[in-house]
Specification:
Blueprint: E1 20-32, E2 38-50, E3 54-58, H1 65-73, E4 80-85, E5 97-100, H2 112-116, H3 118-122, H4 127-140, H5 156-168, E6 174-178, H6 186-203, E7 206-210, H7 214-220, E8 223-227, E9 234-239, H8 248-252, H9 255-276
Parallel strand pairs: 3-7, 3-8, 5-6, 6-7
Antiparallel strand pairs: 1-2, 1-4, 8-9
Helix pairs in contact: 4-5, 7-9
The protein binds adenosine-5'-triphosphate and magnesium ion.
Length: 280
Amino acid sequence: MTAARKGLQVIPGGGEGRQDAVRIRGLGFRLLDRQKRPLPILDNVDLTLKDGEFVSIVGPSGCGKSTLLNFISGLVPVQSGSVEVFGEPPGGKDAAIGYVFQQHALLPWRPVLTNAAIGLEVAGVPREERSRRARDMLRVMGLDGFEDHYPREISGGMRQRVSLARTLVCNPRLILMDEPFGALDAQTKLLIQEMFLSYWEEHRKTVLFVTHDLAEAILLSDRILVMSSRPGRIMAEYEVGIQRPRNLEQVRHLPRFTELHDSIWENLRAEAMKAMQGRA
Ligand SMILES: Nc1ncnc2c1ncn2[C@@H]1O[C@H](COP(=O)(O)OP(=O)(O)OP(=O)(O)O)[C@@H](O)[C@H]1O
Ligand SMILES: [Mg+2]
């Protein structure tokens, strides 16, 4: 992997010595195309996430980022290679994985409070406790006062915060996030990033965060993995090396931010072009 190119300074992320949250070795995945020919989607993916690390994945559209998260969550069975989550095969009952998607997927017939509590309900948490915990988490997300509103009565940014609250209230050890803020306008996105980052800096859950937004990846992460166009593999890795807690406005003005942004884009550009022209 190319960690440092063109004089990019690499600052260790401090994950050493911690338990592996996710360990993937030689993961491959193929589908059959319309002519029933094998179509490689993922190729020999190696990836390790340390417990408490915030890692982002960037890569061209269609390179297999969502597919990779689906393997980690256990939604898709492993074809070749190995995937472990906290030392166990994915999908085990103790894995405690939270998954946040680009679209909020709230239940339209339920008000905000019971939408936020749905994971706790599934886990069999008694009504009073789940209601209290969901209220507390909605407050953290700045949504107190909206508990009785229905999803159609609140903004897109608020819906996405309910969706985040629904995941975080279950206290997952590992949070998979697939372009969670991708559908939001620029200002709402910035506010949610700040809110989520301050939650994360307090709780230090392991996060694997997929985004197309390089700035977002730098602002939030300890480490950034760059995937190639399809078949996706990890082609570069960057330690962000910006101290925490972070003030997102200040981080944008650091020379390190620009340096990382330029270097990652240099790596990604040709791959993104290939994917766009359908050559991948
Ligand atoms: N069930 C499926 N049947 C057919 N093709 C699939 C299936 N799942 C994924 N693919 C193909 O696998 C490739 C990877 O898909 P995936 O959704 O993981 O990409 P991605 O990197 O998340 O893309 P994006 O950035 O657009 O979200 C794509 O080319 C997609 O068309
Ligand atoms: Mg995707």
